[in-house]
From TrEMBL:
This is PucR family transcriptional regulator. Residues 200-302 form the CdaR GGDEF-like domain. It comes from Dactylosporangium darangshiense. PANTHER family: CARBOHYDRATE DIACID REGULATOR, DNA-BINDING TRANSCRIPTIONAL ACTIVATOR ADER. Belongs to the CdaR family. Residues 353-403 form the PucR C-terminal helix-turn-helix domain.
Amino acid sequence: MPVQFVTTVVLVLWEPPSPRVRELIRMGAEFALNPPPEWLAELDEATLSGADMRAIAADPVLAAGTRRTNRSNLLFWAAANVREPGAQVQPNLGEAPLATARDLVRRGLDESALDAYRIGQGVALRLWLRVAFSLTTDPDELRELVEVSCRSISTFVDDTVAAISAQMRAERAELRRGTHAERREVVALLLDGAPIGRQHAEARLGYRLSRTHTAAVIWSDEHSQDLGELDRAADALAAAADEPRPLTVLASAATRWVWVHGRPDAAALHPAPGVRIAIGSTAADLDGFRRSHLDAITTQRMLARLASTQQVATHDEVELVALVTQDRERAEEFVARTLGDLRSAPPEIPDAVRVFLAEQGNATRAAARLFTHRNTLLRRLSRADALLPRPLAANGLNIGVALEILRWSGGRS
């Protein structure tokens, strides 16, 4: 059940601006209701690039929530100033910021994560001043416009941060009373290597730790996703591993951490649209419990980093790609330099090369795997050679790596 709370906003003495400045604010706010894409890109980059925001930026669900909150705050303030230009704006307690606050708490993050609001405030103010200076050249109007706008934006952010902080405190108190919170706490201790007794941990989790484990992260970064689909995907993962008692932790509203004993059949997983599954390695005992989860997180972050359209990925499949794409810009340069015109060829051409290399140069096996005739495969390989900067025979290793990057980035690398 969602936490219900009431927040009180103190309405300070707020002298309304002059009629002319109210009209200027309304004009600027109407423009801000349809912000240019570069505004949003600048806002997102600033709020997610700070040193204190690394944990949020690296998590696809939290990063997507932060981007939604950026848009929500910008549009909320702009809409209020279209209705009542220059009046005090109430705090934004809409769905996007409250959902993000809940997810931050469930990830174990505190109110310091709300620094993103302060960073966003600086960017929004800079963008707004560009608009203000385009609205009037009269120095008196401009001075009043800037003073009123700066006060409005600052007060709006202060009030919103205070209200969201209250929501996070209420959410944290609610979680402490629930079984999900207990599981989350025990799992966090295990992942951190804390000295918690095995039998005690197993009793609290209802899950055996002395066996072989495979971890998975199941999530959605789509705002409208039916969150019940995440639980159904977790059930399907357990069934694919023949696991009657999986361990499931509610990491956030839109994220499930799952552990099963043994190895699930990834090919049997067909999650609903918008649901993603990242599967870790399979390993034994407590070290395996930790390692598999870290590998699942690595897989999840790689899919997000490459904007992959793949819904299901295993660490075994992507380990090399995850390593070589840590620096996205250099990975893009490597793919472009290695593949040349093959990068933009019809998909059957690079697919033929990738499968041919995976089958260690055996054309018969590669053709069978592609469900095509051997001569068709050879023609495609010949076409690929004509498109590559260096022939396949002379650069097979690099070409294979570049094609794997291309495959997992949905061709956008």
